[in-house]
Amino acid sequence: MKKLIAISTAAVALLAGTGFDAQAAGSHKVKSGESLWNIGKTYGVSVKEMQKLNDKNNHLIFPGEALQLPEKVSKDDKELLARLVHAESKGEPYEGKVAVATVVLNRVDSEQFPDSIKDVVYETSAGGIYQFSPVGNGQIDKAADEEALKAVEEAIAFRGDGNNSLYFFNPDKTSDEWIRTRKVTKTIGNHVFAQ
Length: 195
Fold this sequence. Notes:
Elements: H1 9-16, E1 27-29, H2 36-43, H3 47-53, E2 66-68, H4 75-89, H5 94-109, H6 117-121, H7 133-137, H8 146-157, E3 167-169, E4 184-188, E5 191-194
Antiparallel strand pairs: 1-2, 3-5, 4-5
Signal peptide: 1-24
Protein name: Peptidoglycan-binding protein
InterPro entries: Cell_wall_hydrolase_SleB, LysM, LysM_dom_sf, SleB_dom1
């Protein structure tokens, strides 16, 4: 996930109507009043990855500064992730929806799991059972709501931060004992998040 964007972010920004313009492919010229957070959300990239790519150990940026941008998450992957979040997190607080999306992104970044959002979402266990129940029961095919889409954008911008959770479960809906042995990082709503 450390590759530079291969397409011109200027064209993407103009097509998206964001008003942002890039100096060159994979870069952004900072304007007055901008923050790494809003640049990350605009381009759909991780703030932490932007900091790393630009050798920044803090959030300070200055007007006129050219920032290199990390690889962005594709529209298709965002939509797939939002559908998973929607299916897994109906009735859960917004923070929990962001955390569910973050688990998938953490798995992509982990050596223990596949290297793409699509491959993580559709991964099966040794017994052929999908890792996420909405994939197996067809709920993944239902459209995501706006809150799930927003949660995915926030999770992408915060990518690499947090408690490194790789799992989540609802203790009232699972009898799996193995998942209960994992180190709990946080409980949000009905979901327990763990490493």
